[in-house]
Amino acid sequence: MKFSIQINEGPYQHQASDTAYQFAKAAIASGHEIFRIFFYHDGVNNATKLAVPPQDDRDIPKLWSALAKENDLDLVVCIAAAQRRGMMDVDEAKRQGFEDNNLIEGFRISGLGQLIEAGIESDRLVVFGA
Amino acid sequence: MAEKKFMYVNRKAPYGTIYALESLEVVLIGAAFDQDVSLAFIGDGVYELTKGQNTDAIGQKNFSPVYSALGDYDVNKIYVEKESLEERGLTLDDLQHLIWEDEDDDWAEKDSIRLVSRAELADVMAEQDICLSF
Amino acid sequence: MGLLHTVNKSPFESNTFDTCLGYAKDGSTVLLIEDGVYAATTGHSAADKIKNASGVTFAVLGPDLQARGLEGKLADGIKVVDYEGFVNLAAESDSVQSWL
To answer: How confident is the model at residue B46 (pLDDT cuts 50, 70, 90)?
Structure first.
């Protein structure tokens, strides 16, 4: 089965990202395909490369980045939500005239159409939020 | 690929949080994909559609006019849950009058809002391929 | 099989659990996750509501029960699943409605 996932909340503030991560891992372990994981609302903050959580706790952005790398996942951060909240990859930062960018490896920025396409192309779309 | 049934489930009031606004932004982008789209307003979500919103003093953008443009985007199945309105002391009169123009009926103006009971909306929800919540 | 409904809020914090019950038709499944697992415990009205919703299957995410120290307080008739079980429920259902 082809799954897509939508994540509406940022790391740590709500359990949404954690639950989505465990769900994604279980889906992969069960042999399913993950078509796309779409980060919306404060969910875009899961893509920060600047998080320094306590050493004895999970590092959510890095967990997503690693999962994406191991499984060739498509992690998409919504551009509209990202712009509002100051999440920029290299290209977007340049476009906006910023020297800095803050997107961790494994995520890409794209439009809301990617979410709709994920719904169309997948068998199931599961939303995690608050 | 055959069109899929998308339902956007709105249960949160506007302005206190961003969910109502950003949900609407998905609807507008999604309209370009020619799918079978319904919007459901349940619980505090019914407050998103109230008339007379004036946000000057809170400093936020008043996005309520966007709902009246939905008809132009072929988004014309707007379900409002009757029980949620009644619990909140509201009637249809308190909500914006949303319309669409039916090109298959000589562009006749029709109501987009469908006032339905929880049971009726549950039936509609059960038919959806994708339920998006915000 | 009907929809898979998920509820992630405590029934004491918000009315989401009640709303979900109003939408869960016979043949559907309600999965309690995150703070929603409190509805699966004994000793309060949520447990009665679950009993009365006879056509609906109830499940609870075990890891969230364990995290909250609630395994000993699970009400009867509620299936405990892990994340793989969650995935299976999503795959077996027609669609997923996450009540947020």
So the answer is: very high
Q: How many domains does chain B have?
A: 1
Q: Is A89 marked active-site?
A: no
Q: Looking at chain A, which subunits does it touch, using at least 3 CB pairs closer than 8 Å as the criterion?
A: B, C
Tokens of A59: 């590092």
| Euclidean distance between CA atoms B38 and B7, whole angstroms | 5
User: In the CATH hierarchy, which fold is given to the domain comprising C4-99?
Assistant: Hypothetical Protein Ychn; Chain: A, (3.40.1260)
Rounded to the nearest angstrom, the minimum Cα separation between C73 and chain B is 30
- 0.90 exceeded by pTM: yes
Q: DSSP label at A43?
A: G
**Helix/strand/coil percentages in chain B, nearest 5:** 40, 25, 30
> In the predicted model, what is the mean pLDDT of residues B91-99?
98
Token pair for B62: 């008043």
Say what the ipTM of the complex is: 0.97
The percentage of residues in chain C with a pLDDT greater than 90, rounded to a whole number, is 97
Helix (H, G, I), strand (E, B) or coil at C25: coil
In chain C, helix, strand, coil percent, each to 5? 40, 20, 35
Structural domain including A121 reads 2-128
| Structure-token match 């320094």, residue found | A52
